[in-house]
Amino acid sequence: MGGVKTIFLWLILLTAFVAVSVQAEEVRLKLSSPAFKHAGKIPSLYSCDGSDTSPPLAIAGVPKEAKSLALVMDDPDAPAGTWVHWVLWNIEPTTREIVQGRVPHGAEQGVNSWRRKSYGGPCPPSGQHRYYFRLYALSERLDLPSNSTRLELDRAMRGKILAQAELLGVFAHR
What we know:
Blueprint: H1 2-24, E1 30-32, E2 40-41, E3 57-60, E4 68-75, E5 83-91, E6 97-98, E7 108-109, E8 129-138, H2 150-157, E9 161-171
Parallel strand pairs: 2-9
Antiparallel strand pairs: 1-3, 3-6, 4-5, 4-8, 5-7, 8-9
């Protein structure tokens, strides 16, 4: 009978250890796209060579404390300095995908470097450029005017970022 008690006690301890290990495992925010791999070529469809529509994006690992998400797409290789292509905030934290060509329901869209409240796809003047999609999980919703820029979004996010993820795509005209 002592052997059964010992085995039972070991099973309880093992179960407790596994439960603690699973809880301790860090959930990481992830951003990906079914249209291109990280560091891969962004298809022309999503550029000024195509229909200039935003690519589909997949979101995973949002921290349960997050109250909203924000997304920025920019090109640090632009001749005049970093060029902002897309600015979104107040995306619901339950959002698991951003559908191609759409802004998530309830999200706010800010002003890009073309001074438009829209997605502006890759359109480098020459050579291959890098395009970063950065996703931020935030501790609160943001109270920003609808004509806010990336700089204003960055200021509003200070001290509120719980996690962030990055997806890199590259593009060059044919």
